[in-house]
Design goal:
Length: about 325
Amino acid sequence: MATSGHIPVLLQPVVDLLTLTGQEHTGGVFADCTAGLGGHAVHIAARLGPTGTVILNDLDAGNLARAAEAVRVAVPGITILTHAGNFASLPRFIASHGLRATCVLADLGFASTQVDNPARGLSFMHDGPLDMRLDPAGPVTAADLVATMTEQELVQTIAEFGEEKHPKPIARRIVQARQQGAITTTAQLAAIIRSALAGKPTGGIDPATRTFQALRIAVNDELGNLDALLDEISAGARALQPPGSTHTGPRTEWLAPGARVGIISFHSLEDRPVKHTFANLVKAGLARHVIKDPLGPTDDEQRTNPRSRSAKLRGIQITSNDSGPSGAKGCSHG
Ligand SMILES: C[S@@+](CC[C@H](N)C(=O)[O-])C[C@H]1O[C@@H](n2cnc3c(N)ncnc32)[C@H](O)[C@@H]1O
């Protein structure tokens, strides 16, 4: 059940987390926040069977269409709903359809169709327009940021989102370079960064790696969007508590009692808020850990899929006063 050579990260742990190992999971509702190429979705869909529902979401309409087609082919007859947009708005879309998700996945970051396409401007390995938008209709490109940020803003962005140890020479060199003419391509920017860091240790990675990560995160407001999704997960957990319970804050009715939630992150800036939100939900009695210490790839997976190297999977199960921790149809196990 492959999707055109695409290898989903941590596939088996994700399927085990979200569905009951070795059994049928008919009729569940799977919300895939980051459908990508549908790599995870086809396998979860197979567990839900034709009476299940798969809700696919992606910022990238091209990927969303690919994922929907992959699920349709893998499980004929299954109900598929698509939402082209930010995953922060997915919970309201689900609630507006009167549905409650029994399992939820967010596999953060970008897909191979995006990073391997020079036209998307995400990689310093290929020359292309300095774009970096995951949503091709998004309002701001990396070229816009590089042209308009002050030197101090560049320093802060590169340090914070890239965890770059030498942000100052990079920012200074960018500001000098843009006085000679606009920086519009990935190759131009990569050359500027490499010359700014010449002679400095970069830990064996291309000197442009961290700055490209920083700009991608800024262009797509990746951490703001993740925070918004985590808030919605908390709001969904609170909505399962009886009215008047001690749990205050917004309530969005989009999670089923016992719903399982998995998030795959690729760097510590993503993993940290996931860890804290999950821990807070468990502490408040609104969830239990299913995967507390994050799961990473096996040596085999790292060999066959190098992108999996930094992946970390965390998972919780939402509890509710109504049905206890195992109430979610289609996604429950021990
Ligand atoms: C790592 S890929 C997902 C791969 C997918 N699990 C699979 O196996 O095919 C991440 C996807 O999330 C999408 N994405 C990233 N941030 C998003 C956001 N805030 N809202 C919706 N989609 C987002 C990207 O466009 C990309 O297609």
